[in-house]
């Protein structure tokens, strides 16, 4: 499985970096992890001209590069940072550009990719941010995977065992669902069919 992490933090050595390290440590070498730090890309604000209903977005920035990296992933872990009870502005711009305009004329190319969410913030508002990103995941017709409790990391804690456990269980669920959606090939070399073809009556 190829997992891409979208990191909203502007701090290369903060809590988000610890979360990325935890992901790599937990998954080991069995999963290829690609972490995208939004701070390294130019992401302009959506101009809301609604022209993307019929044609590719005309805003010239790095969102196309980001989407290309996401397109190569089997699963995506969204890792926003909470600012003022919402996502930080760079992550918000990313959600608007990717979730609203950029992917719409392309018929949602992230459709059916697995997605999970972990939120980094001080103390209050984690679940509001989680819900916002979850709606964006559903807008792009992705498959949202969770473990019961959302991984919400509190920045004032040196260690957050509960959040770490929730993240580990979420990662395990991502791997589990990836295996279910991609069963091993049979002896014939052809993948096993999960759904039977629909037979229509002639008439």
Automatic annotation (TrEMBL):
Gene3D superfamilies: 3.40.50.360. It comes from the Bacteria. Residues 1-148 form the NADPH-dependent FMN reductase-like domain. InterPro entries: Flavoprotein-like_sf (IPR029039), FMN_Rdtase-like_dom (IPR005025), ISF_SsuE-like (IPR051796). Keywords: Flavoprotein, FMN. PANTHER family: NAD(P)H-DEPENDENT FMN-CONTAINING OXIDOREDUCTASE YWQN-RELATED. This is Flavodoxin family protein. It comes from Pseudomonas ogarae (strain DSM 112162 / CECT 30235 / F113).
